[in-house]
Amino acid sequence: MCTYLTMRLEVAGSGKGAAGWMRVTTASVYLDHPAHAPDDHTLNVDLLNPDLGPAARVALELEPRSARQLAEAILALLPDEPEAATG
Amino acid sequence: MDEAIRAGTVEVVGHGGDRIQAYFAAPLESESRPGMVVIHHMPGLDRQTKETVRRLAAQGYFAVSPNLYWREAPGAEPDDAAAAVRARGGVPDERLVGDVGGAADFLRAQPLASGKVGVIGYCSGGRQAVLAACHLPLQAAVDCYGAFVVGHPPEGFPMAISNLVGLLPRLRCPLLGLFGEEDQHPSPAETSELDSLLTSHAKEHDFRTYPGAGHAFFAVDRPSYRPEAAVDGWGRIFAFLGRTLEG
């Protein structure tokens, strides 16, 4: 199915795309058809910088179990108050 | 018919007079031909969509697929373009209708065009094929597992999309619907509801729901591919187009 289900959020950070490192400002997270992964559906993440054009993108297509493990790893590493990690 | 075709990138005038890129294929034989607009799925005007355009041309149709993401992402790879448009909330329905209408005009302007034009779409394009057929003077529409023609998007749905129930009385041409019994969007209950609504509006339609198939059973490079359903589905598509566009 085309789930259309998409979460969008503003982010601050950098990512390495096809043209090298760039600042990323927007993230899309969605469960839908992948462009490359050999699965019907994957958990997809796009880290974008729309000001630099559509190709300014770091893309991930993860098998859902892998996506959950990644999310848990991220949450396990970050303190409850993210600001505390920047000091 | 020797199935020789030419294919490549063209420009069509879409919604609002915008010039957008499209992929066009045409039979080489010099006979009058109907046209088909192919609406690409959410991953964009990709290789698979272009293969569908060429397949229709080899079967004897002028076929064109407008790049619905051209405005946001001119010249971008299909996957990058799809990501850019998704991040902006998707393609507005009004713009889709204008772009399909422009593509249909492009087909009617071909020197050997018969004047009859149909539309086909897969996944999100299935819903958009029905949408276009409710607004435009088309002679045939094919909806391959389009979600949210009926039913409601989930609460908090982030993309600007609504069902087409209110538009169905305006459907302007016969509709062929091909669905998978294991699909959830659209579910068999939803396609059954659509069937009933079209019957109540006295709209000509022909639906087939394949057992053992889910969403995207035509997609040959995905695990969802179901050869039996896809082969039968292609046969039904060409029989339907022969009846509606070539009669």
Describe the SSE topology.
The complex is a heterodimer of chains A (87) and B (247).
Chain A: E1 6-17, E2 20-32, E3 42-48, E4 57-62, H1 64-77
Antiparallel strand pairs in A: 1-2, 2-3, 3-4
Chain B: E1 5-13, E2 19-27, E3 33-39, H1 47-58, E4 62-66, H2 78-87, H3 93-108, E5 113-122, H4 124-135, E6 140-144, E7 175-180, H5 188-200, E8 205-210, H6 227-245
Parallel strand pairs in B: 3-4, 3-5, 5-6, 6-7, 7-8
Antiparallel strand pairs in B: 1-2, 2-4
Description:
- The complex is a heterodimer of chains A (87) and B (247).
- Chain A is globular.
- With 87 residues, chain A is an alpha+beta fold.
- In chain A, a hairpin with a 2-residue loop joins strand 1 (6-17) and strand 2 (20-32).
- Chain A has one domain (6-82).
- Chain A has a four-stranded antiparallel sheet with strand order 1-2-3-4.
- Chain A is built from one helix and four strands, in the order ββββα.
- The mean pLDDT of chain B is 95.
- Chain B has a single domain, classed as Rossmann fold (3-Layer(aba) Sandwich), CATH 3.40.50.1820.
- Chain B is α/β, with parallel strands linked by helices and 247 residues long.
- In chain B, strand 7 (175-180), helix 5 and strand 8 (205-210) form a beta-alpha-beta unit.
- The two termini of chain B are 18 Å apart.
- In chain B, 33% of the residues lie in helices and 23% in strands.
- The chains are: A alpha+beta (87), B alpha/beta (247).
- At the A-B interface, strand 1 and strand 2 of A face helix 2 of B.
What are the main properties of this structure?
heterodimer, A: alpha+beta, four-stranded antiparallel β-sheet, 1 helix, 44% strand, B: 247 residues, alpha/beta, Rossmann fold, eight-stranded mixed β-sheet, 6 helices, 33% helix
